[in-house]
Amino acid sequence: MLLDVTRELKTLYGIVIQDISKDDKGVETKKPLTVRSVLAAVLVTNVQGEKQSAAEQVERFMLASQMVRDDKIELSSEQVTNIKKWTASRYAPLITGQICMILEEKLDATDEVQSKE
User: Fold this and answer.
1) 73-86, pLDDT tens digit by residue?
2) Is residue 36 assigned to a domain?
3) Separation between Cα atoms, residue 72 and residue 74, nearest integer Å
4) Does the reported pTM lie above 0.70?
5) What is the pLDDT of residues 51-67, one digit of tens each?
6) Distance in angstroms (rounded) separating the CA atoms of residues 88 and 58
7) Burial of 88 (0-12, 13-18, 19+ CB in 10 A)
8) How many structural domains does the chain have?
């Protein structure tokens, strides 16, 4: 599947979720929370107790690097399955639900839930 990682994540009320962080001078900055920022974080961190080979970790690092570099990336069905699992182990339902629905192509670019029968 081709994934647009620039998609912004929203609250249940349709408001864009803000990613709040501090820059190198300690100044607080806000920017929209995107698929890119969530998945890059998911890919470069392990869940406690999770064991992965060096090759698996390199693959995750390379995919995270591609997400940071490119606005659209091609994912295999295996990558989609793994990303959904890793996201669910790190994030709450508000984020995990949107990520999974986007990956399953059940949430379109207008943020309308699509029925896939």
Assistant:
1) 999 999 999 999 99
2) yes
3) 7
4) yes
5) 888 999 999 999 999 99
6) 21
7) middle
8) 1
